Input
Amino acid sequence: MALIRTTEPRGTFRVTYETVTAESAEHGDAAERGWLDWRGCPCDEYHDSCWDFRDLTDRLAGCYAEGDGDTVPRWITLDPQSDFWLSPFWRDLAGEDALSVTASVHRPDWITDSSWIRVCRMLGWRSCR
Output
């Protein structure tokens, strides 16, 4: 009998990104969005977006972090704000004409509430409680 896995591989986090340009802001939308691989390069498939904890903290910690509004967020969005051009990681992702760039870390289904909250806090998120 074959075992079919429906969960994320343990230790793997999925990350998405979004960039906004002046033109896309006029239309109320993002210029680009999608999945990010662990190097910070856009990728087409979610399963190519495999980040470990060290990748997250090395590249994304220290940004303004906001959850989705729940006490245990389903994702957190990290925003370097106006300093994105200082970091090669964010600058390369944003491109030349971006006004802003954000990355969102999505909660994997293998992690407990308390461990996910610790990950979020390590990335800069603070609960609203």
In short: The first strand starts at residue 14 and ends at 21.
